[in-house]
Design brief:
The protein is mostly helical. Helix content is 86%, strand content 0%.
């Protein structure tokens, strides 16, 4: 169980590194006025998205494996359902990042840097909530 938990945390950290940096690239892309810079940022975003997506899948698989070890406890806990719901929102956020990455690579970006600056803060809020739920188990 502890090995599963350790690797779960490692892959969560890797996934969140991407969730923090990818929208930042989108901010820089939207703020740039130079076509060469925008092209390079679009390529960087695409490569980063492809790199961190497996981390998301592995983190979720490890989390589900831990849940499967003691489903009676975890599925009866309100904090776990909130955590799972939060993870589901983050998966949607990750997919939305992918849509934005495709849009900038196809020169179809419809958002400015201010939008992406606010969009960039979403995973931070969820990280706080998920860690508090997982560590304190308040409900």
């Amino acid at each position: 169980m502890l090995w599963l938990k350790a690797f779960h945390i490692i892959f969560i950290v890797c996934w969140f590194a991407g969730l923090f940096y990818l929208p930042r690239i989108l901010v820089y892309y939207a703020a740039s006025e130079h076509a060469v810079v925008r092209t390079q940022l679009a390529v960087m975003a695409q490569k980063l998205y492809r790199f961190v997506t497996p981390f998301m899948v592995i983190a979720i698989a490890l989390g589900l494996a831990m849940l499967a070890l003691n489903p009676q406890y975890y599925l009866a806990s309100h904090w776990m359902w909130l955590k799972l719901g939060s993870v589901a929102v983050l998966v949607v956020y990750h997919i939305l990042c992918g849509r934005y990455v495709r849009a900038i690579n196809d020169n179809r970006n419809q958002h400015n840097h201010v939008f992406y600056r606010f969009f960039n803060e979403i995973p931070v809020l969820f990280l706080f909530g998920i860690v508090i739920l997982a560590v304190l188990k308040p409900l």
